[in-house]
């Protein structure tokens, strides 16, 4: 039975064009679960997979904000629409498309408690568009601008983000 699961997993990785991740993840114990004896290469591959999925999600959200929808069955789901074929960008660390003037969310969320979750929250916001420290801080309750600035400075020091002359931060591209 596990061979069927592995075969399906490989087919999904191939459909996305991520065969090199399949080689690192399919059939390995503890896949995408917190397992203490997980090898470093597997942890890195899982992080890469999650980052690619987040990037693809941001890309799709930006396209939908612009009115572009990728129908699975256009003849059935949107028979009156003119089909528009766009390239699916699934490559390594693709930069997500910028959303078209999306209305800012008015519902603020709590600033994460752990450093790891804070880093993830800031990186996820930077994945959509470059921004200064005040912009992501404003998305959280009690505007944790000092903490956001510390996370951005640390990410810049690690080479994961870069800051432009105007003070805006962006994800560093490989």
Automatic annotation (TrEMBL):
<protein>
    <submittedName>
        <fullName>Uncharacterized protein</fullName>
    </submittedName>
</protein>
<feature type="region of interest" description="Disordered">
    <location>
        <begin position="127"/>
        <end position="146"/>
    </location>
</feature>
<feature type="region of interest" description="Disordered">
    <location>
        <begin position="65"/>
        <end position="111"/>
    </location>
</feature>
<feature type="compositionally biased region" description="Low complexity">
    <location>
        <begin position="98"/>
        <end position="109"/>
    </location>
</feature>
<feature type="compositionally biased region" description="Basic and acidic residues">
    <location>
        <begin position="84"/>
        <end position="97"/>
    </location>
</feature>
């Amino acid at each position: 039975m596990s061979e069927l699961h592995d075969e399906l997993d490989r087919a999904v990785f191939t459909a996305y064009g991520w065969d090199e991740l399949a080689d690192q993840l399919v059939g390995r114990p503890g896949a995408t679960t917190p397992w203490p004896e997980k090898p470093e290469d597997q942890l890195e591959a899982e992080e890469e997979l999650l980052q690619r999925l987040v990037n693809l999600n941001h890309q799709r959200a930006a396209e939908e904000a612009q009115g572009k929808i990728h129908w699975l069955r256009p003849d059935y789901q949107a028979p009156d629409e003119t089909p528009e074929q766009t390239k699916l960008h699934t490559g390594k660390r693709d930069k997500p498309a910028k959303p078209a003037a999306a209305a800012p969310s008015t519902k603020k969320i709590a600033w994460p408690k752990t450093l790891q979750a804070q880093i993830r929250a800031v990186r996820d916001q930077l994945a959509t568009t470059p921004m200064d420290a005040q912009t992501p801080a404003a998305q959280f309750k009690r505007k944790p601008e000092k903490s956001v600035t510390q996370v951005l400075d640390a990410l810049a020091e690690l080479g994961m983000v870069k800051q432009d002359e105007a003070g805006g931060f962006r994800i560093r591209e490989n």
